[in-house]
Design brief:
With about 160 residues, this protein is an all-alpha fold. The chain is built from nine helices and no strands.
Length: about 160
């Protein structure tokens, strides 16, 4: 099975310059270079928007500052004992816990955190508008009633 081909920056720039300066159709240029027409069009578009900076090295998209810091943090976490994938379910069992975490970590965008934590954006904003759910209120009421009944029965619980 053939792997994915990787083109360096020089090849991409030469291909784009050839396509921009030649009288030949782009389909023919792409065929001569051994690449697809759509790939060459993508490179031309990228070059028109970003110039040479659009092609950084071995076919990788240029990394923004946020992604670089994320990569450094994950390398630090990988060095620690345990697996973050396995512990993820133990850290945040309910969406409400995830929303509370998101409130305390505003250094990332809401969209990114919702995607990573697998919760909906609308659920997060709903939580912001009403942090205590109706069910939580009902549970708190029931807990008070149970404690009151426990005290009136002098600490005996269950049926007699």
């Amino acid at each position: 099975m053939k792997g994915r081909r990787v083109y360096n920056q020089e090849f991409k720039l030469d291909a784009v310059e050839l396509a921009n300066s030649s009288d030949k159709p782009i389909t023919e240029i792409a065929s001569d270079l051994g690449i697809s027409y759509h790939l060459l069009c993508k490179w031309r578009y990228k070059y028109s928007k970003e110039g040479k900076e659009g092609f950084s090295g071995q076919g990788n998209l240029k990394e923004n500052k946020e992604f670089k810091t994320f990569r450094k943090k994950t390398e630090i976490v990988k060095g620690r004992k345990g697996h973050i994938k396995k512990s993820f379910g133990h850290l945040f069992k309910t969406p409400r816990e995830k929303y509370k975490f998101m409130i305390n970590h505003k250094e990332h965008s809401v969209e990114q955190m919702c995607r990573v934590l697998w919760v909906s954006i609308s659920g997060y904003y709903g939580f912001l508008n009403n942090p205590v759910s109706r069910r939580d209120l009902e549970n708190a009421e029931l807990t008070l009633l149970i404690k009151k009944e426990y005290e009136t029965s002098r600490g005996v619980y269950g049926s007699l």
